[in-house]
Design a protein that fits this description.
The chain contains eight helices and three strands, in the order ααααβααββαα. It is mainly α and 162 residues long. The protein starts with a helix and ends in a 5-residue tail after the last helix.
Amino acid sequence: MDDDARRLDALSGVFLLAKDMRHHMSDLMADERWAVDAGFRPPCMGVMAVVAKHQPVSQREISDQLGLDASDVVGVLDILEGARLVERRRDPADRRRHAVVLTEAGEVAARRFAALRAEAVARALAHLGPDEQEQLADLLNRATAHCAAGHEAYVRERGLTV
């Protein structure tokens, strides 16, 4: 088969890369008994990363950052709160809103998750040089920049709540 016949389109390439990264994350997470015993699911890591970066952060902001449905965010936060890694507190500026923050144990877990994520990315992108990895990240950021705005518009147009 020649190179053109093997060349993937963007959609297939993104799906294949995502599958490879999930595989590496699963391998790495299998050794993290504390996370497995707490019932962690794949979105837990992304939620922890958003909270670590933006805390205090609303559930809606987490939803928007990750493209997760609000009900999925609530479920993930229930898991993380049950493991005592996050706390949901009423936002003093807006009592209708919950502000999510990491606990002390959550800070430790977030650093561990960040290391595992970095290792999974390193494994999945090992065949790319540092400049190519940066270029890929830049392209993905540009390609997905509209996603949060599109999600917000979708919710607004349909009168839904997040």
